[in-house]
Give the backbone structure.
Amino acid sequence: MNKSFLFSLALAAGLFSVGAFAQNQSLQLEEGFDFKKCQQKASLIGDDALAECMAKENLRVEKLIDYAYQSLANDEMFNAWNKGSGMFRGNLKNLYDDWRKYRDEYCSLYAFSMEGYLGTSYYNTQRCLLDLARQHYDYIKILQENKKSTPD
């Protein structure tokens, strides 16, 4: 492969920032975690160290997503659509579960597609998981903003 193609592929991967799936169950988000500082230190070590930073940041973003879903589930305006009780039943629960399944499967496929091109599988997985979590959180925030702008 020529260098310009590989550079274009790397640039596209960076712009679309999609990564992969290897979940580290023992990973915990420490209080005061600073993603940018973690990235700076990890960039001197390598891809898997960067992936650990992304995995920790993903935990932080997933907590925001969980809180946003709970906020929607507890909102009277969304109860009619939810057809359930809080976050544990109904359309919101289905939406959340379906999003997680899509995210995990997509990131697994993405990491597989990147084998041999750029980064380790773990790096590509974590990058994807984080990017899709951030994107999903932005979409959930739009719903919350729509609610705020709805006339009473």
Summary: The first helix runs from residue 3 to 16. The chain has one domain: 34-149. Residues 1-29 have pLDDT under 50 and may be disordered.
